[in-house]
Amino acid sequence: MVTCKIGEFAKSKAGHDKDEIFVIINIEDEYVYLVDGKNRNIEKPKKKKTKHIQLIHYIDSELQNKLNSNVKLQNEDIKRALKCYKANKEI
Description:
5-stranded antiparallel sheet
């Protein structure tokens, strides 16, 4: 079984959103709730089985700080974290 953490990045392996990168914001049994801040925002996350995602094992430091201090995440925080990750990955 895949062990996921809230705030961790994940890549979709199946569905119409295949190969898209998301942030995990909630975990329930075999399901995770994914957001990207744009198409899938915090108010309406994507529910996906853990077998349909590939964990990237990366958590943005600013997202981690907000999660640890119980500050509510905003869509802008998610978009910024994903944009920074993608920019660093391409270099």
